[in-house]
Amino acid sequence: MDYIKIKFGNNFGTLNSGYKKSIEDIFRSVSPMFSFYERSWKPPMDIYETIKNVVITAEIAGIDKEKLEVEISSMAIRIKGSRNELPRVENATYRLAEIQYGTFERVLYFPVPIDTENVTASYTNGFLQITLAKLSTDKTHKISIADG
Predict the structure, then answer these.
(1) Rounded distance between C-alpha atoms, residue 141 and residue 57, angstroms
(2) What is the edge-to-edge ordering of all strands in the sheet holding 102-109?
(3) For the chain, what are the domain ranges?
């Protein structure tokens, strides 16, 4: 069985990188070829929760599993990867070119704390699915009180 690399951490980017991406998104809506840096795109993703889990599904067809990175903290997940552009046909006039290529990075914040020790991921038919167990919030701990 092949596994998707999952890293654990708390530092998911800086304000500066988010600022660049926001400006780029504005200009890319006017011209898709506009980019501050390497071409990037945003794959569509769904996130939902059940009683015990939070589930994320990402549509990322055409990406080799080796080019995917997943980093998790108890409050957020970062999914990164890249998709190579297909070779263009010479002497052809493209009438539509909507498939996006290049790198992508998505940071999603969880609605509840996550148990980072209980995570599974699978990649089938172009969909990455990550299932994360919620931390139980109904546990109580008894605290002993020391004398003065």
Answers:
(1) 35
(2) 6-8, 68-72, 76-83, 102-109
(3) 6-10+41-84+102-134
CA nearest to 99, candidates 72, 73, 61: 61
Token look-up 């903290």 returns 73
Q: What residues contact residue 46 under an 8 Å CB cut-off, 6+ apart?
A: 56, 57
pLDDT for 70 equals 94
6-10+41-84+102-134: which CATH topology? Answer: Immunoglobulin-like (2.60.40)
Task: Give residue-wise pLDDT tens across range 35-50.
Answer: 444 568 899 999 999 9
Identify whether the C-beta of residue 43 lies closer than 8 Å to the C-beta of residue 86. Answer: no
**Pick from 9, 123, 29: which is nearest to 76 by CA?**
9
What's the residue count for the chain?
Answer: 148
